[in-house]
Amino acid sequence: MTTTHRTPHRTTDQEPAIVATGLRKAYGDKTVLDGIDLQVPAGTVFSLLGPNGAGKTTAVNILTTLISADAGGARIAGHDLAAEAQKVRAAIGLTGQFSAVDGLITGEENMLLMADLQHLSRGEGRRVTAELLERFDLTEAAKKPAATYSGGMKRRLDIAMTLVGSPRIIFLDEPTTGLDPRSRHNMWQIIRELVSGGTTVFLTTQYLEEADQLADRIAVLHGGRLVAEGTADELKRLVPGGHVRLRFSDPVAYENAATVLRETTRDDDALTLQVPSDGTQRELRAILDWLDSAGVEADELSVHTPDLDDVFFALTGSTVPAQTASPSKETVR
Asked: Which of 21, 112, 158, 277 has the smallest count of CB within 10 Å of its CB?
C-alpha cells in the first residue's frame, strides 16, 4: 500500500505572498519566459516543475531581484518587485541550486557572517546562530570547517543561513538535487516545519515525488509558458489511464463480474479485470455496488491513478529522470 504525506492544504485571508503577471524574459532570440502568471498564497508551498532549460531558475532569479524581467511585473510580500526591490529583498530568502556555504570557514562562522550581512547586533547574531544550528542539528559540527560536511549537512547549513534574517518567503531552487534519499526526506521535513510556522515556500524541483509530497499547488513550466497549474490531484486527473484492477480466483465469479461491469479489459489467464476509473470514491463505490448487486466478490482490488510522472511526460513530452519515478503506481485498498 502506498501512502502520500503531502503537506496539508492551508487557506489564508492574507494578501498573496507572490503575485506575478505577464513575466517575460529573453536572451537574444531565445525566449525563456513567455508571459507567465503566478499567484502563491501566504503560508503555502508552491512548486514550479519543468524540464531542464524550462525557465525555472530564471523565474526564481526575477522574483528574487537578481535579474530584471523584460516585461510584466510582480508583487512579493506586498511590495512592488521593480519599485521596492530593497523591501522585497528584506522579506525573502533564497537557497539556490549551488551552495552558498564557504567551505574554508566553520559552519558557525558561515552563520555569523550571514548575521553580519543582515546587520544583526553581535549578541543577536550569536543568539540566532546558536538557535538555527541547533534547529538544523548542526551544533556538534558547528566548529568544523564546512568543507568537511556531507552534502546533506551543507544543504541544511545553506537553509539555516537563509533563515538568519527571518524571511517571510523562501525560494528553494532545486534544494535536494544530489542528496541521498535520507537527506532528501530530512529536507522535506525541514520544509514542512517552515511552512507550519507560517513561512511561504517557492520550490523548484525535478523530483516529481518531492512536489507531490510537499506542494499545495504545482505549476508546470514548458517552453517558457505555464502549461498547467493546480493541486497534485487536479493535475493527475488531467491524464487518462486510471483504472481499478480486480483479481479473482474463481473463474465463475470472474465471468460474472465481466458480464456485470462495462468497458472492462480482460486478462483471462490471470483472471483479472481492469475497469476505467478516475480513482474517485464515487466511482469506486459504483463499481463495488455493481459487484454487490450481482453477488460477486473480488479476491483483490487495487486502484491505479496516473502520477506526476505521467502528468510531466504528457504535458512536456520530456523524458522524466529515472530518480523521479515512483516505486509503485498502484494502491491496494
From this structure: 21
User: Of 232, 267, 287, which residue constitutes the final position of a domain?
Assistant: 232
Q: Are residues 147 and 182 in the same domain?
A: yes
Which residue bears the cell 524571511?
167
Per-residue pLDDT tens over the stretch 233-270 = 888 878 776 788 999 999 999 998 988 887 888 999 99
| Exposure string over 37-72, b if 16+ CB within 10 A, otherwise e | ebebbbbbbbbbbbbeebbbbbbbbbbbbeeebeeb
- What are residue 39's DSSP bridge partners? 19
Phi and psi dihedrals of 31, rounded to 5?
-85, 120
* Boundary residue ending a domain (180, 207, 232): 232
Are the C-beta atoms of residues 65 and 89 closer than 8 Å to each other? Answer: yes
Rounded CA-CA distance 235/225 in Å is 16
* Residue 172: φ, ψ to 5°: -115, 110
Question: Going by C-beta distance under 8 Å and a sequence separation of 6 or more, which residues neighbour residue 183?
Answer: 150, 151, 152, 155, 176
Measure the CA–CA gap between 38 and 171, rounded to whole angstroms.
14
